[in-house]
Amino acid sequence: MEVTNQTLPSFNQSVSKGIIQPFFQQGEGKGPGNVRLYLKQDIEAYAAHLKTKKLHTAKKTGN
Fold it and tell me: Which residues contact 4 (CB under 8 A, 6 or more apart)?
């Protein structure tokens, strides 16, 4: 969340949609027993994509 500058619900939605995929996952469902690990390079690439998308949207709307 910190790298992508997303809220928890937004980050979780990216995961549930399969946009961000953990390279390791232990446990099922929600809660403290569920562990997901992500590759830093994958998260940084997604963050760059989000930044580009936000800039493109801002230019389109004139902000």
Answer: 11, 14, 43, 46, 47, 50
Residue 63: band (very low, low, confident or very high) from pLDDT cuts 50, 70, 90: low
> Could you count the other beta carbons within 10 Å of the beta carbon of residue 7?
10
pTM of the model: 0.74
The 10 Å CB-count burial string (b at 16+, else e) for 26-39 is: eeeeeeeeeeeebe
Give the three-state DSSP class for 36.
strand
CA distances from 27 to 3, 4, 14, 36, 44 (A): 24, 24, 19, 9, 25
